[in-house]
Structures are given as C-alpha cells and as structure tokens.
C-alpha cells in the first residue's frame, strides 16, 4: 500500500541529521534490517522515517561508536540486549587488555630495540607427554593456553615439565597445545636440535624472546621449524611475573 508523505514522516536527510548519522549509514542499516524506514517511495526508492524511530537510530549509532559489532547490535534491537551487551563488553575488555600488552612490549622495544638474546644449540630427546589442545586466534592465545593448562592440572606436580607449543606462522585460527611430560603419556613430543634461549619476565612478553631467537636464525643462516616451544621453568602461582623463567626453543631444520 502506498503511504503518502506527511508531516509525520521525515525524509532520510533530515532524519540522519536528527540522529547524528549519515545517509549512507541509514541505508546500510536498512539493508541489514536493523532500522527499516517507515515508508519507502516505490517510485524513487527514497526512504522516510518517523520521529519516534530516532531513539532506535541513536542507540544504534551509540553502540557502533563504542565498537559494538553489528551482530550484537542486531541482537539488542531484537530484544536480546543485556546478554548481547555483556558479550560485547567482554570482547572489548579483552581487546583493551591485548592492546595494553602490546603497549608494554612496544615500550620495551622503544627502550632497547629487538632483544639480542643469548642463544645456544641444544639437543632435546623425544618425550612421552599428555597433551591438551585448544583452538585459538592470535588474540585468544592466553585464554586458549589457560584452558589447556586447566585440563592438565590433575597431571601436574612441581617436578613435572610443562611445555607450551605454538605455531611458528600465525594463521587466522590454529591450535594451541600444552604438554606435560609423563612416562605413560599417550603423545610423543619429537626430539631434535633446537635453538634455545631463556626468557626472564612475564609470559605476555615472551614474544620478544621468540623474535630474538628468530633473529638469531636470520643472523646465522639457519632455517626455523615450528612449533615454538615454551618450557615453563617455575610456578607462576608462587613466582613474581618479573622473575618467571621460560625456555624458548625453536627447532633447527638444517643444523650445521
């Protein structure tokens, strides 16, 4: 049914100014079904909105300004507001934490450049292990590692070796693995020749040592082979973060 334009309807340009949005944004939200115009002229395709729709439009604009993803905004508009907003808040909080870790790393690099780690060549034997795996992205590595550790808690003790295994090449999604050595373990961790360096400091700064070891590969013309191994040498529950020691190991594919 054709609805005539009336004083109760605002053309898209006026409605955009009222809601502090652009015409392009309003068209996009219409295409997504987030904010459908009150009436669209069938001849021209021009969109018109009721003033009462301004509250919804302002809410959408506010949420997008806070980096709430469109999928969460859609849930809010469909009535699933509290859960969707809590989930969006958790994602933003995790992103803020990741950026703070990045700032701390950047401060280290600004202060001293890429670390020149003392690297040694070591021969590692094969090890029987129990292993836990968890899907991860570059942003969720800490959570995935924690989940793996949680599944292995019953097999841990102060004298048990725990090893984190991380891909050398970061894809969009990959598996994080954590292994604990055990004579009756159902997985075999291969041995080989490794470039090894000890990282001292918080786990979140281990990337600096990993990059330092990779720089060593470049300096000496060796070829690295993944995964990157992190051998945790002390207990984070009783060791201050600045005193944690982690042995970073990367297998040398063509030892000389």
From TrEMBL:
The keyword DNA-binding applies. Keywords: DNA-binding. It comes from the Bacteria. Residues 9-79 form the HTH merR-type domain. The keyword DNA-binding applies. It holds the Pfam family GyrI-like. This is MerR family transcriptional regulator. It comes from Actinomadura meridiana. The lineage of its organism: Bacteria, Bacillati, Actinomycetota, Actinomycetes, Streptosporangiales.
């Amino acid at each position: 049914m054709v609805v005539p334009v009336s004083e109760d309807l605002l053309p898209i340009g006026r409605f955009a100014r009222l809601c502090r949005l652009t015409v392009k944004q309003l068209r996009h939200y219409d295409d997504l079904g987030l904010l459908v115009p009150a009436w669209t002229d069938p001849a021209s395709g021009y969109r018109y909105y009721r003033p009462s729709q301004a509250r919804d439009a302002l809410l959408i604009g506010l949420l997008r300004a806070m980096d709430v993803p469109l999928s969460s905004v859609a849930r809010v508009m469909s009535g699933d507001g509290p859960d969707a907003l809590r989930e969006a808040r958790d994602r933003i909080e995790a992103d803020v934490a990741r950026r703070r870790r990045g700032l701390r790393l950047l401060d280290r690099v600004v202060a001293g450049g890429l670390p020149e780690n003392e690297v040694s060549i070591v021969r590692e034997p094969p090890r029987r292990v129990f292993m836990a795996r968890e899907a991860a992205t570059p942003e969720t590595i800490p959570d995935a590692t924690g989940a793996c550790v949680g599944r292995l808690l019953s097999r841990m003790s102060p004298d048990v070796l725990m090893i984190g295994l991380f891909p050398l090449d970061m894809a969009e999604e990959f598996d994080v693995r954590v292994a604990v050595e055990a004579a009756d373990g159902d997985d075999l961790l291969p041995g080989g020749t490794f470039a090894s360096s000890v990282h001292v400091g918080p786990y979140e700064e281990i990337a600096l040592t990993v990059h330092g070891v990779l720089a060593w590969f470049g300096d000496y013309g060796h070829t690295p082979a993944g995964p990157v191994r992190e051998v945790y040498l002390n207990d984070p529950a009783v060791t201050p973060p600045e005193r944690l020691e982690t042995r970073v190991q990367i297998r040398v594919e063509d030892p000389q």
